[in-house]
Request: fold
Amino acid sequence: MRVLLVEDTEDVAGAVCESFARRGDAVDHVSTLARAADCIAVQSYDVVILDIGLPDGNGKDLLHAIRAAALPTPVLMLSARSKIEDRVSLLDEGADDYMVKPFDLRELHARVRALARRQGPDRAPVIEFAGLRFDPAGQDLQIDGVPVQLTRRELSLLEALLASRGRVISKERIYEYMFSFNEDEVGMNAVEIYMARLRRKLEGSRVTIKTLRGLGYQMIADA
Reply:
């Protein structure tokens, strides 16, 4: 999952980025509205986590810009304001969710994943496909009931493929899903490396990951 975090409090941002990175998610962190707008202009995100009070303005301005551009990206707002009027106002102005600081990182993860699911084909928290049972929240994969251990990067790759199962997903989109801007030292060939590792972990299952030269990859169920 690719997340944009717009937060100027360094200790909060550091904790959020580290917690998502441990799960294999890619997080781009910026501390100003201007930087956030630059990121959104060149990169699509599964979810935007947006603080209200920022050095160069109010986070609601970016929320309004995202909605004015008709971008479907879910936006979760962060604020120290706990009044119900503040929450109602933000939701009415286009926010998809709202959390009051301080918050529990486990709840933040759950809410972000729930928002991401709304955009994809999977509304249930657990994805089942051709004998695979994948729980993104628990980072757990079972093949025909047998647990399979995956690294955080392999989990991120599996999540990307399952979200597009049956359809072709480009190598570039997978790369964007797995790696953030601050990991620019990681080359595109990293996708092929993790793809090979994941294929080995899925050997013996009823799932095949096809390589379509010049197009990308496709996860299908064997006939």
In short: The longest strand covers residues 207-212. The mean pLDDT is 93.
